[in-house]
Amino acid sequence: MLPHDLPRRPVAPGLLLKPLCIGTGTSRWSTSTNQPDDKKLLDGLRCAVESGVELVDTADSHLHGHAERLVGKILKENRGHKVQVSSTVGRILGSAPHPYAGPRVRHQLEQTLENLYLAELAIYTLRFSQ
Fold this sequence. Notes:
With 130 residues, the protein is α/β, with parallel strands linked by helices. The chain is built from 3 helices and 6 strands; from the N terminus they run βββαβαβαβ. The protein has helices at 38-50, 66-77, 102-116, and strands spanning 9-12, 15-17, 21-23, 55-59, 84-89, 123-126. The longest helix is centred in the last third of the chain and has 15 residues, at 102-116. It is globular and about 45 Å long.
């Protein structure tokens, strides 16, 4: 079964997507592992987008924004895409008193949108961390 064979389902109010998603939250993006092979990652992301995947899930913490920048590169290449993007904020504290400080979240959203070459996100999640 290919992504285009799957029916869309409600994900959030006003957001219908096929039940197949690409996520960048794997150990390959961890800062404790070797640098990922960008060419292979770009090829995989490109294949997913060209095959009809409609949701990409990423986060500012995935290799300090590197994952977002790679996703953005693919989305920029495929200007007519129907990909929606979800991202998560809150794992990286920065210099704010806490990861959900208004200026911190606002700044990171702006940086995420710039990394992704997007004007908006479909879903923006605040990560709970202890």
